[in-house]
Amino acid sequence: MRYSKQRNLILNILRENPVHPTAEWIFEKAREEMPGIGVATVYRNLNALVEAGEIERISGLDGVDRFDGNHMPHYHMKCNTCGRLYDLEPESQESLARMEEVIRETFPTEAVGIKLNTMLLKGTCKQCSCGEPM
Amino acid sequence: MRYSKQRNLILNILRENPVHPTAEWIFEKAREEMPGIGVATVYRNLNALVEAGEIERISGLDGVDRFDGNHMPHYHMKCNTCGRLYDLEPESQESLARMEEVIRETFPTEAVGIKLNTMLLKGTCKQCSCGEPM
DNA sequence: TTATAAGTGATAATCATTCTCGTTTATGAT
DNA sequence: ATCATAAACGAGAATGATTATCACTTATAA
Known about the structure:
- Two copies of one chain form a homodimer.
- Chain A folds into two domains: 5-68, Orthogonal Bundle (Arc Repressor Mutant, subunit A); 75-125, Dna Ligase, domain 1.
- The first copy, chain A, contains four helices and six strands; from the N terminus they run αααββββαββ.
- Chain A has helices at 5-16, 23-33, 39-51, 90-106; strands at residues 56-58, 66-68, 76-79, 85-87, 111-112, 120-125.
- In chain A, the strands form two sheets. Chain A has a three-stranded mixed β-sheet, with no helix packed on it. In chain A, strands 1-2 form a two-stranded antiparallel sheet.
- In chain A, β3 (76-79) and β4 (85-87) form a beta hairpin.
- In chain A, α2 (23-33) packs across α3 (39-51).
- The longest helix of chain A has 17 residues, at 90-106.
- In chain A, 28% of the residues are buried.
- The A-B interface holds A 59-61, 63, 77, 79-80, 88-89, 91-92, 95-96, 99, 102-104, 106-115, 118-126, 129, 132, 134 and B 59-61, 63, 77, 79, 88-89, 91-92, 95-96, 99, 102-104, 106-115, 118-126, 129, 132, 134.
- β5 of chain A pairs antiparallel with β6 (120-125) of chain B, so a sheet runs across the interface.
- The structure holds a DNA duplex.
């Protein structure tokens, strides 16, 4: 992969904005700095960066992919009620990391190498769950 | 929700074909029985049936949604290597159901009501994992 | 039987993403 | 340094899944 100003800009935007943006959002942000940049370039580079493991793609939301510049493996949560997408808090991250270990150890041989952190957790968030039966 | 021949046909197709088909596939299948049926009708009814809890939507694959007429809560697996999408075997289903219990009991209060079975497990399947490091 | 609201089908529209292709640019070798 | 070349770019067209529109049909309850 060769150096390019555009790719660097896109990567920086993702590193500096921990908000799981869409390609569209990144495109607009990139234009502010580099008005001539094209949409295709943004999509092309997002794909390349995902491929290279520099960023992460979050699919399965509502048809629009989102991206995450956070290097560390971590878990995402989508609230089915309010629709919010967010990183779990550290405590939950640790909790799930431990579970993942257990799953790796005890899961039947049928499916090997399940990676929970590539999945999107779906449920009901704290705010939305007040008074709601579980 | 009112009775309609079209909706019934679509539901039957899903019940009789445990293959996680796309809307397109269901449309083609439906035409064989009812040549005049329209695409919009298929999408409209798939949405309605998901909404009504009669069927399940599987998102986050490769941009195309898939549908599942299986009533029972169960887990799906997508192999990142061969791309196959399938129901886990009964043994794995049970294993994951137990884990889900554990998660419900021990998960921090931040996110309540996480439903593992609405997620798509991603990893490497048995066939693809032969000789591959985990 | 009839009123009416839900469902249908054809087709146009939407919208995220990819493709094409002629031009530009980073980079390794001379 | 400059050159060759393959990678990357930008504009705009194309794709493809899904949804919206709207006039017409049909299930259902009074």
